[in-house]
Specification:
alpha+beta, 135 residues, five-stranded mixed beta sheet
Length: 135
């Protein structure tokens, strides 16, 4: 329903370790990132999940206009909206995403993509007591 044009391309590394997390909150974070990417880009949206050091990293990339010039440092503050015409909403999505990441001991960052667009990266630690999942 979120992607009737089937623009999202996803890759998940096999055998990822388990993380201790609230599945509903993480699903909300991922949905917000994907919704933003779909709203601000007319092209495909890439999502990949893979190991990153001792944790797991999720990246959502688009080829839209990129982050707002001169305001990327305030991107995760409530009420900051992009300048794209016709975008509704309260501007709380990225602030909520960062709060969810922080509640899980993680980090959410946004940056412009080389060649145009934006990339949002979520990094979460793996519970060291969690057994390895076979690949």
């Amino acid at each position: 329903q979120r992607d009737p044009g089937r623009r999202i391309r996803s890759r998940v590394e096999p055998g990822l370790p388990l993380i201790h997390a609230d599945a509903v909150l993480l699903a909300q974070l991922v949905a917000n990132l994907l919704d933003n990417a779909l709203a601000y880009s007319d092209g495909s949206v890439e999502m990949d999940v893979r190991r990153s050091g001792s944790g797991v990293a999720l990246h959502v990339r688009d080829r839209g206009p990129g982050l707002p010039a001169g305001r990327s440092g305030r991107l995760f503050e409530p009420q900051l909206r992009g300048d794209r015409e016709g975008q509704g909403g309260a501007g709380l999505g990225l602030a909520l995403c960062r709060a969810i990441a922080a509640a899980h001991g993680g980090r959410l960052e946004g940056r412009d993509r080389q060649g145009g667009g934006a990339c949002f990266s979520l990094r979460l630690a793996v519970d060291p007591a969690q057994p390895e999942v076979p690949a």
